């Protein structure tokens, strides 16, 4: 190490998997049995007593090792960098990662490689926020607009958003930021909950959890739909009657439908007053979403958790294809690309209601919405962050929900760090949980069929109970 | 093994890399120094004396190990399957792979995981064609229309193409197939060549290779553009003067431009009469391509080598965004998804001119165009397959070009199999070539800068000379 410049010394990766499939938490029409997993990354430095940067890509089980391999393939871009320089300008690293001409072929800017870039970039932001002594939302909200514009890659965006327009939006966004910060710290940011609505839950559990959500202060719930129309009609009726007429109820098809089917199905549920229909079709289908939106109004159309990058978000907005933009903290190329998406949404006047849940997605994405409120859109009207009460107990700085609102984090960083004992226990396949698991992971359909009875009966699985804060 | 049912016994993978960056073959505005690579897969069976199935995903160097890991992650879907069943209906395996609910999260249907699916599915088709004793194009062209329709996944397509419409297209396509087969076997399928036009070549080399292309019988060449407008104007002038007014000249920007820039740049090159402009902007930008196409006519717009799946191709056609559909044999989910794209293109009356080059892409994709000619579109008018004279010497059944035409393969299979000695020599990092290479792979920008002089001087690199058939 030349002189006293602190450097990134290692990019350590971990394959962490939670056996969530055993309780049917997280079950939807496209994902019947997810094992929520993280391809987890720690940036280590030689700064004496200095913090580490934590980040992760979220997956749902099988293939998490491929995601880990992709993060590993990026390490040469990171190791040896000056900690000070990379934290002062994460955008340079982000552009270097996206611009690696050989790795780019594996996307470009989509899928496994792009999520790996997001994990590394987010870990840098975690490091930067820790070194700044601020929660990430605050670091972003207090940053100079010019600097924020420099964090965005405008390539393939300028027909919808130029750097000059972005700068205007950010300058306007700062007016009144101090007041909004105070309001945020006091009251938090509105949340909605998906916990009642998993497809694998029976009507009693749905009723109980829906009523509980309202009692807990949530003003919106969400139901998974799309597997069977009769079931969905019944479940929507059950849920509507549990929450009453004034609580918003969204439905989420997780990409199951073709365009005509999405229109037909959504209309069939219209009598229960769904607020939005989420992922009605392929996340790649901009024109399909536009056709659906025209046909199902006043039901709103929402998508984004699987939208691979800013270029597809741009088109969803250009084509008037969505009413709600659902960013995901771990799908695109990290904070930098999500800044681009937040700016695009602001430019088109479309509210951002993040996707969260899984493992750690709530922890991350709250920071982006809070920045958006304080220093960009300036409002929480018609804006909610998804909340799911799973797996928060594994994080050092877990989200805190009060009266249906996310409490603003105050600890420095991006809230990304998992507890060391959770990392050790759920590392796959060598961690204590998996090593002791007689079934191992079920890698084949036959395995799953064989294990089915045991799993479906496992109502009190180790991780099924989220921390209900 | 129960009874005498032959099974798939192994999915073996190989990380194969060729040091093509050393001769600047393959250099373009987005990919200055590719090392053409294959994440290669061999399906082994216990059928006595039976063939293996070969396939691969194409990458350009770094990250090929991630692509290999993704193929490895699919093996449990393949090992143990009945060889006869999987060959009689590759569509079932294809749907199982795409439908793996946990792996799906890593795409969905895009990037590393999807290319891995393509490699495995293509290996199955190679196996099926070998067992049928036919080259793949012929197996497809002689298949029953009903069976072909069953090979296609219509999910997210039916607003543009229904199974019934596909069946009609295939039934109509068969009329006159015998005559076209005879014509194809006699005269081959038209090719165009990109060999003269790499960005790293100087004007003399461009002139020499362009004139040579015409002398060899090609009626179309292609130039890489997009790095510097003045250079491109000069190079287009040089190339046009070398080939004369009657040979078509396409230009390829490899995604470098934003929409306005693409329009401006293409118009600046219009005086040289480019036939098409390829990848003018992000492959994800359907609306951007549509805007560019409206603005640059009569120059045609072509894209597809990085289009991740059939859903984006669908939209390019729905939005009148392209004049030319460029399928790639190894980007989407294999033969099955390319069947969908060929059917979509036929439905919209848009010619398909495949992307090829790299390593082995010519060998694969010729089969798809030949099927399209014999049994679907029924014509080669305004249709050409890209040809690049690199690395064919590594294949057991390499493409044969005569008078600017691809000769129809007659050997059974998908022409995917590499020579065993090439696999051994170029396996990374342990193969004889890489083990002996003092520079290793250059994994960092610093390494590349350090090695730059040596590489740029290496005009007679081991693999720079393609077999000019």
Automatic annotation (TrEMBL), chains A, B:
<dbReference type="Pfam" id="PF13378">
    <property type="entry name" value="MR_MLE_C"/>
</dbReference>
<keyword id="KW-0456">Lyase</keyword>
<keyword id="KW-0460">Magnesium</keyword>
<dbReference type="InterPro" id="IPR013341">
    <property type="entry name" value="Mandelate_racemase_N_dom"/>
</dbReference>
<feature type="domain" description="Mandelate racemase/muconate lactonizing enzyme C-terminal">
    <location>
        <begin position="203"/>
        <end position="299"/>
    </location>
</feature>
<dbReference type="InterPro" id="IPR013342">
    <property type="entry name" value="Mandelate_racemase_C"/>
</dbReference>
<protein>
    <recommendedName>
        <fullName>L-fuconate dehydratase</fullName>
        <ecNumber>4.2.1.68</ecNumber>
    </recommendedName>
</protein>
<feature type="compositionally biased region" description="Basic and acidic residues">
    <location>
        <begin position="444"/>
        <end position="459"/>
    </location>
</feature>
<dbReference type="Pfam" id="PF02746">
    <property type="entry name" value="MR_MLE_N"/>
</dbReference>
<feature type="region of interest" description="Disordered">
    <location>
        <begin position="437"/>
        <end position="469"/>
    </location>
</feature>
<keyword id="KW-0479">Metal-binding</keyword>
<dbReference type="InterPro" id="IPR034610">
    <property type="entry name" value="L-fuconate_dehydratase"/>
</dbReference>
<dbReference type="InterPro" id="IPR029065">
    <property type="entry name" value="Enolase_C-like"/>
</dbReference>
<dbReference type="InterPro" id="IPR046945">
    <property type="entry name" value="RHMD-like"/>
</dbReference>
<dbReference type="InterPro" id="IPR029017">
    <property type="entry name" value="Enolase-like_N"/>
</dbReference>
<dbReference type="InterPro" id="IPR036849">
    <property type="entry name" value="Enolase-like_C_sf"/>
</dbReference>
